[in-house]
Amino acid sequence: TYAPKLILLDISDINCIRDVAKEILNCYGCVDILINNASMKVKGAVQSISLELDKKIMDANYFGPITLTKAILPNMISRRTGQIVLINSIQGKIGIPFRAAYAASKHAAVGFFDCLRAEMEEFNISVSTVNPTFICSYHSQPPSANWEASMWK
């Protein structure tokens, strides 16, 4: 067994994900199970959400998990074993009003991991997506002048 190691990671910061994956692999040698369980959401009408915020949601919910997965994947492929799990959302299957950016990012993630599942079968790597219905999340309440005022993390 290995002593646990805490590594802080902002999944929306794509530039640091590869370094974190490298640090994990250097510390433990391999990853047997990767669970992608980070998310960010915003509630608002399409016309009221800035493109900047749309991109931040996409970075956290789509590019973050796929960047981390791609960084860990070569190690799993070389060992011909591993399990990758995406904790996603029912909104990755069904969109609802006032959640366009969130639903779009979750749809994209489902599409990516569905394709990955088919590609990884030959390497004995299991890829699963879990799409729970609505869950209670932590809601940050920064000052209302901040665009993150309606951000859920």
TrEMBL record:
SUPFAM superfamilies: NAD(P)-binding Rossmann-fold domains (SSF51735). Keywords: NAD, NADP, Oxidoreductase, Signal. One of its GO terms (biological process) is intracellular calcium ion homeostasis. One of its GO terms (molecular function) is oxidoreductase activity, acting on the CH-OH group of donors, NAD or NADP as acceptor. Gene3D superfamilies: NAD(P)-binding Rossmann-like Domain. The keyword NADP applies. InterPro entries: NAD(P)-bd_dom_sf (IPR036291), Sc_DH/Rdtase_CS (IPR020904), SDR_fam (IPR002347), SDR_family_member_7C (IPR052148). PANTHER family: DEHYDROGENASE_REDUCTASE SDR FAMILY MEMBER 7C (PTHR44668:SF2), PTHR44668. Belongs to the short-chain dehydrogenases/reductases (SDR) family. This is Dehydrogenase/reductase SDR family member 7C. It comes from Tricholaema leucomelas.
